[in-house]
Records
---
Amino acid sequence: MSMRPGKLWSRTVFLLILATIASTVILPILYFLTISFASNYEAYQFPAKIFPTFSYSAQLRYNAEKDSYTLLLKKGSTYEAVKTTQDVSDFSLYCKSQLNVLLSSAAVQELFNKAKNTDHALPIKLKKDFFRNYIVFFILAEGSMCALFNSLKAAGWTILISLILGGVSGYIMARYKFKFSNTFSTSLLVVRMFPAVALSLPLVVYIMKMNLYDTSFALAIVYAVPNIALTAWITSSIFKGISVELEEAAMVFGATRLKTLMTITFPLAFPAIIASSLYAFLAAWNDSITALIMTNNNPTLALLVYRTVGSSTIPNLPAAGAVVLLVPSLIFTFIIKNYINQLWGKVAL
Amino acid sequence: MVSYLKLNSLKKTYPNGVTAVKDIDLEIEKGEFVVILGPSGCGKTTTLRMLAGLEEVTNGSIILNGRDITHLPPRQRDISMIFQSYAVWPHMTVAENIAYPLKLRKMDKHTIHSKVQEVARICNILDYLNRYPAQLSGGQRQRVAVARALAVDSKLSLMDEPLSNLDAKLRTSVRTFLKEIHRNTGATTIFVTHDQAEAMALADRIVVMNEGKIEQVGSTREIYNQCGSLFTAQFMGTPPANIQKVSLISNQERLIANDKNAETQFSLDLGNQSAFPGIDRYIGEEIFLAIRPENINISEPKGINETSIEIVEPQGAYTILVTKVFGSEWKIMLEGDIDIRIGQKVSLIIDPGKIMLFDAQSKKRVNFS
């Protein structure tokens, strides 16, 4: 069977793209998720597992000469001794902290008795507490609910500020041609070039003078600055996409300019504007640098994750924190996607 | 008697200095269906948009039903409009689209509902009232636009190339539909198009525009057969009239057209000079000669106006023959399926009454009466 060179070429390109997506997107995300569910013991294992595990295949051996018990975990085809102890609570603590397995003292005692009464090693199955890392994260990160709320508030304000100011600029950029209109739109982008730190350091002085330090609103102001420009550019292309004839039709059929804006232009732009608010949301949600400078007692969730687990040497807890941070942005994205999809007979503009 | 709609030396100059419309004077009677016809860029759409109030008027005035509406905002003009892109609002259902202008006119719910039902029935879109425009085909969207315009009972109905986004087959059916609507409602309508077939089919009167000026106003028959200017002769008709710059000579009471510049020694016998009273002052002068393809007939070679057929284009109902006259291609349209060979010698027979002559300088029609 022979293949035309063109076809071979396109197939190669397709496979390359597939491989790139797999190696740069899917595998890291999968690894990330797996690590976030891994116990300390698992996190140190090499090679790392691709999929999360729910239980351990283990053996419990009684050493008669020392009157101690040894826990062995299955590693490949052999069993590896991981813990030898005489004490029930010591064993229980090890399971909890290193293996993410919750065993009460009574349950451990029962296992010990069984192991004592068998000549050979007792095969046991240790069930993992799957969400242990997440629970630990929320225990470690004190005030995480409060931080979550702060993050949401900051994101909300950022969306509001950037949509109002950016939306108006976008409409002007799309509908009106005036002297220096190109300069205006380009200069908006210049604002985006400032690093967040460079903006927030001088701003923090003014924010303190205005008694807004350590509030979500102050954070939102800093987040909104680069976002206004982005929103303006996005919304201007949205408004350009709305045919002027639709507005003219409204005016011919009896609407004032304001009425046209409120009943035709704005509702038509609304879904796309909501979609563009995603950028504002993500900018606010993902930032920790600005929050580090601008807040003190009311950190955002991203900052809290950074503070709590940023110095951790084992990757499983930070991974759990990161997933916690990821979930709300995913939910937000899907809500918006579904909202836009079901609008106006499921057909995009 | 004051006419219903009057445009007084209407002029539009854009801020960049381009003058799109120069001095338009037009009077339209109540209930007329007027088509503004012209090539793209001739100012026809600008004229319509000035009528709608979507374009600022530079100079002149618009009087509708005795009221000066020149500088009124669109909503106060009591007009309706059908746009080229239909301009039905995609975020409203069909019913909401039709009801929107009525709501703005502060009608009560019951009246709006019955009005929507009424126009939806006329436009045959009763089944789609709850659908969104995105779920409709182009033709159905066009009907929604028509229904919306119908519902408002306006003083003036404007249509900006409403058929140009439809495919060819649909275009003719919507055309018939629009004509039917007009016959039933008798609404004063101004229809803008660049398609002469549309214009001729629909219009009570056609306004031919070119380069911001009105070339000619008249009925379809007048515009087609009595072209007032060279432009109209060139623009109207498919295929358009055969046009040649010739110099006229008189030879034994017969009028002969020669082309000075052409290398071919062709001369066209236009017939007895008595058929062109007052032609004397053009003898020896240059003049534009125009003859429509269907006004030329052929016969066996007779020694005059002899030429040979170069291309035959059968069209079923008629046949288009292409021949060289004065070195340029002339088209002849004959009824039926003509059996003719390429290269066959024929004589052209021209009805002197159908010949149109245009002044070489002014390019206006030379009248003999």
---
Amino acid sequence: MALIELKNASKGYGSNGSRNEVLHDVNLSVEEGEFVVIVGYSGSGKTTLVNLIAGLEKADRGEVRFDGQPVKGPGPDRSLVFQNYSLLPWLTVTENIALAVDAVFPSWTKNEKSAHIEKYIAMVKLSHAAHKFPKELSGGMRQRVSVARALSMDARMLLLDEPLSALDALTRATLQDDISEIWQRQRKTVLWITNDPDEALLLADRVIPLLPTAPATLGESIPVNLERPRDRKAVNHDPRFKSLRNELINLLLDAKGKQRSTVSKKLLLPDILPEDLNNANNFRFLLRRTPRRRNEEKREEIELIP
Amino acid sequence: MSTMNPAMLEISRLWKSFPTPDGGQTVIVKDFSLKLAQGEFATLIGHSGCGKSTVLSIVAGLSQATHGGVILAGRETDEAGPDRGVVFQSPCLLPWLTAFENVMLGVNQVYFTASKIERRQIAEYYLSVVGLADALHKRPSELSQGMRQRVGIARAFALQPKMLLLDEPFGMLDALTRFELQQVLLELWRRFRITTLMVTHDVDEALFLSDRVVMMTNGPEAEVGDILRIPFERPRDRKQIMEDPRYYDLREHLITFLNDRSHLRPSNDPAFNPSPDMAAEMSASRLTIPATAT
């Protein structure tokens, strides 16, 4: 049985008159131990989808089931990582993680808890910064804390909403590699949301495009049958990677192309040359009243059909 | 692009350094030379902080070179002007003006001899071509990040500048919106063939858009590491290019440079073997080519 199952789930915002449907008839099922990445444009409803699964929002229609049970609210069986880290600024790294551990394992002894916390801090390679405050950490390090916190809950499923989008390219690459390595050891169920096709193909067992139709729907899933560990340099030579990359990017670009508005209007571009303001010897415009034209007769007319 | 064309832009032996508190000098950009032909699209690629933007802002006239000069269309230039259209990473629109009014600001400057109707037509034309026909009168706060950057592109092209200078124009956008805007940029460039110098650290972007990619070594003392000519025919189609067997070779070449070689300086590296483009550029600017390369 699938761990997460969405059946014809729809979600919209706004009241009757100006209701705007964001997700329409979304069907998704994620098996236990699977790494699924959903790729979509900004503003296409990715976060709404995560919120439905996390239980932060309720679907208007359709079902969202976790392990066979309808999702009624957030719970410690699904841990979350957000783009903006969401750490408490007045707590150190250890204390931030302790907050989650205390909530999920209230019966543990102090020693058990601190050993557990240390283990996860070491896993994300932050042992040297365990007693620092979030403001003393770089963006990449903060996101490591957030990942450690999510993992420390030992949840059955990890939901990550654009976890690396706020980081620069190099930091993003290191974190992708580290998270992918942790995942290979733990094989937790992961649902990862991103807008980066390369990130999706490097990490996922299965990539699902979120198509920017209005409202958005999920496209056909694309299985990624590349061996792990995946080396980001070596995959560039892999013909399977290249063809998956092309397939995914084309799918998303084509979907966007279809969705464009169909304003049609006639435009006129007067064939006028700009005046040269940088050249003091060339202030000939003082001697004339009309603009320079490339060609007195020529005017470009184009019909704009996007 | 033949080398017979007169150079639209010549950056000649450019140095940029800043004084340090102890009385010394930190050299940011070292002996940077480059020639761009009329209608060429060139990209500067390198790691963050390597001095790419410094070079671009000197060409834009927003910053002064310590030594060396910039020659634009046969005339030395050391101040900013509307003959160079600049697009920054953030679109820098005036928030209290609509998209149309933002473009009109520049248009009124350079087409002041034209009639009001014609000026309005110009602004409307460029905004429509970048896909904002139905958002002309929206303010920046009502536009998405991608749409704001479209306004920035329209504003630059509307001035019909001699050169277009793009400083990581799509750096703040997500991967997919970036693809869309690259298409918009390429379409406009195809139509008007404005000589363009772009700064980026996105390898795919450089490959898709440019005629030549100039790789810069890591700063400080950044210099030209190598130059790569991109052979894809124009007009370019992303699907076609990505299926081209040469694409992934070129991509690999650039990534390898950025990962492994960008810290090596050609002037100190005895094994440096310049590409033909690099050699041509070096001889044109009378730089010394290491003895092993000959």
---
Amino acid sequence: MRVFGLIFKNTLRHKLRTALTILGIGVAILLLGLVRTFIAAWYSGVSQSAPDRLVTTSKINITFTLPISQKEKIERIPGVKQVAHGTWFGGIYKDPKNFFAQFAFEDAGMFHLYPEFIVDSATMHAWETQRNAVIVGVETMTRFGWKVGDIVRLQGTIYPGDWDFLIVGTYTGRTETTDDSQFIFRWDYIEQRMEKEWPARAGEVGWWVVKIDDPARSAAISKAIDAEFDNSADETKTQTEAAFQQSFVAMSGTIIISLQVISILVVGIILLVAANTMAMTARERLSEYAVMKTLGFSGGHLFGLIGGESMLIAFLGGVVGIAAIFPVAHGISIALRAFFPVFPIEAKTLIIAAFSALGCGIVAAVFPVTRAVRMRIVDGLRRVG
Amino acid sequence: MASALVDVRGVSKTYHRDKVEIPVLRNLSLEVPEAEFVALMGPSGSGKTTLLNLIAGIDRPDSGQVLVAGTELGTLGESDLAKWRSRHIGFIFQFYNLLPVLTAFGNVELPLLLTKLSGSERRKHVETALDLVGLKDRMHHYPRQLSGGQEQRVAIARAIVTDPTVIVADEPTGDLDRQSAAEILDLLAQLNQTYKKTIVMVTHDPRAAERAHVQRHLEKGELA
């Protein structure tokens, strides 16, 4: 029998209490992992951003459109390699709750700007030759049971009327964290109809995506683009793609701060659960610790014994919680895929969860260890003759 | 008389309960020669357990000195005192104080975990100690599976397994029936007579005290 054996036996002494503590820590770790994953999902757009891509939007805000005529001027700015535009469509498929992101792309050049979207050449060819063609991410295809060749009707909100799209193929993400839920069609499809029905809105695009030759010059190129349109009717705001995505996250800043506060509170809960158990345990065993000290066990031994038990319980709770993160996060990602197309369980999240559990195990042992070490043997034995 | 193995020199000890001072030992001196079996008797609160604790090195006097086998315990820090106890003291408690999660074997092995003995060496020592107290066939039993007398015999095995210099016993028969108490006293007497172990025993029981070579009575913190 080694000291670890004694730790193990002590841990199993009150099986129900230990099991409930492990479960409590496990639930808290699960909650921590999910909160961190929600935060990661919020930031996934930022983390997926390419350093050589700039985004130019209206200086007023993202909902204001820009004239197509800006393209040539942007292309002439030194350092700019390629320019393409994108436009938010915002249509409804049967019911508003069936949300998914819909974008009108200028042409196939936009796909070259986004190499993380993998499209085969046949699909790309079909998309280029059919004006109402749409390429749909596999996630959304699966979600609605669509197949290639289907006609999908969307009810326009920004662009009034019913819009029929022919699915010519799908795209997949280059990595697991690439958003593969988008619905991407040709801008000239809506442009043609705007020219006929709403001529005042023709020639408008949502934003420019600008590929640059040197990410280190992104600030200077951004400044040059915006300077080009200063004092015009359509002033622009150019920023790196990461900063652009970050601005969306910033809109939800309060929610994210709340989530971060919740994650800190969850760590506090883990600590309280573990500390409560260890405090009860140590109080019950003071006479045993006194006996062990009488036998010659030192404070260091008691630290190992109590701390080891606390760490073991915290470790097991951490294992339970971390193991539960995967299926629960998967379920949430399915349920909320319209809002979080990417719901990534990051390695950082798992590391934070593991260290939170073990850290709380250590901290939870501090008070009982201190008490046991400082306890006078005669007090522990509770007997004075 | 042989030279004193335990030499208590003018020790005093006062406990403090809130603001009340309770003097327990008053300038008490005691010598216990090697291989002696001493019984400390006296009414409750007379200081006999406190004296035993001082000899065992689990408490410290306010004044005076306690020397055991030539070591002045007051010169040792907590860590050194713990190591000293593990080598020199075998403690037998009134209520056995076995760890409930360990078998008889595990409880007896416990003090040996502080030594550098290998697993097989520890096993040999534990089996010898349990054999000596007549419980080798119960080595895999947990305390809850043993009678009070058997538990105390396991506690004695735990106290002797390291072959300590002194065995201190605090009312070792106080929680036992007459038959079990007699068996425990026989065992202590055997340890003293056969193995020449020095034993200091606190007891209320005159029949237990009769088994010792020497009986010392304490009254209000002083030897009568």
---
Amino acid sequence: MEILIIGTVRGALYSLIAVGFVLIFSVGGILNLAHGTYYMLGAYLTYIFYTFVFGMGGINLLLISAILSVLSVGIIACLVYYILLRPHIQSLLYVMVMTLALALFVGEVMSLLFGVSGTRVPSLIEGSMSIGGVKVINQQLILIPITALILPALWYFLKKTKMGQGVDAVAQQRTGAILMGVSVETATLITSGLSASLAALAGALIAPVSSVVPEMWLFPLIKAFAIAILGGIGSLAGSVIASFVIGYAEILGSFLISEQLTELVALVVIILVLVFKPSGIMGYKLR
Amino acid sequence: MNLLKRLAPFTQNQSPFGLLILLAMAVYPPISDNLFYIEIIKLAAIYAIFAMSWDILTGYTHEVNFGFAFFIGGAGYLSGILSSLLSVSLYLAIPIAALAAGVSGIFIGYLTLRLKGPYFAMATLAFASILYKLSFIFYEITGGEEGISGLDTFTDDPTKDFYVVWGAMVAIYFVLSLYARSKHGIILKAIRADEDATQSAGINTAYYKIEAFAISGFMAGIGGGVFTHSQMHIGPTMLSGYLSVIVVLLAMIGGMGTIVGPLLGAICLSIVNESLRIVEEYRIIIYTGLLILFIYLAPDGLINLKFIKGSRLLSFIFMGDRKPT
């Protein structure tokens, strides 16, 4: 039971992070190594807005600052794409190095501003709940309904709205989409903003229950990649399934073997999948 | 005259600029007796070893190795453990560690052989992160966060230490640049251009890729071992992603696929980095910001800039090519 609930919470968190990562990769061909940084910025900006702009007001102000931080991370991601990545978007190496250098840079800026020991953000909803004898913090539990809301909304956006269909078309067949008059640049721009906002949302939601430290970008990134690999790069459904698989696997690993091994699970998954089945669960065959 | 002739293959088609850098570093310590500056160019030389040995795999095949700290830190830890716990002499410990790094290069190269582009990069990153995590889990051996301190050094004199590092760097520079100019280097370049075409010309591309991986790992292992013993310390930072990224950045800014480019990039930027210590608090921010700026302005590296490649004189000075008139 414990495994089930905590695993679901983790799976929900990971799917918020990983969906954006997979989306930007399949649409823009951008392997965004700054994805963990957007997650971190989501947490930090919530803190910044809440503490310095609103002066630690009530719960409504916290909610507003979380929303503001998600929006501003989206805008930052659009700027990063437009100014830094767009000129050399064809070079995979350039994109990877640039995003990773950005990740280091932002991490250092944050540790200069707020110190390495990190900061704290109060919870949106206090207290904890007991489900089937397991105590869960409410703030963590809130992730489940939010993810359950966001993912169908994303699906609706991609399949039903005109803008989303354009994005989806670019992801499926780039050349075909260009011939049909879809602007690849606009699609990529929208996707950058969207995927970064999803990561930032995850960061803002998890900030109260985990410490906000400058190194927090690294493990979400590795997990997002493990999920993307396991689910098959380019498949959103696969990545959602893989998020929950990895979430449960980690909890199971930490219960059965040792707490320290949880972070190794994702890494081992990356290597095993890459070596034995490089296309992942639902991905199409690698070229 | 005879000696000159025998040295000819080493100096022919070498970049005059690269040789000049190596020479300048050698004559610096006798001129200045400021130990701080000697320490700085020693660090620069070590980063140059890392950047050059990274370049032989990635610069020539364009398969991005993002987990280079695996070889550096792995070899560093191995030689540190061998010399501190088992009291093996460091002249034996470093070659053993480097060999182990080379062998693990063969192993990783074999596993990741079929992977391309981002998949390859992330697989190497994952290997490095696993080792990083393991260094915390087995803290009885590795010393956890603190690492292992008080290791043997080469000599007691920092200047002589510098010459040991310098010697390693020069040897690696020549080995790698000769390798890159040999048949093997040309095949690696062919793989970079078109792997399928190379394969259909009857070349076993897998063999050459694994070979490059092993050499790159071996050289990085030497660099890591030398670094560990000249610092008398090894810690988890030597396995961290930060080091991997810095090596990639240094080599990219210098200019990939040239050996002399990474040498130039690593030495110049490390000296810049150390001289930023006057503003210690902001050092890493300014440094990483500077690296981003360089990558943004010259994504192919300084040595591959258009005006250098276009001019006959400059391309001779920097690359050592004699273009036909």
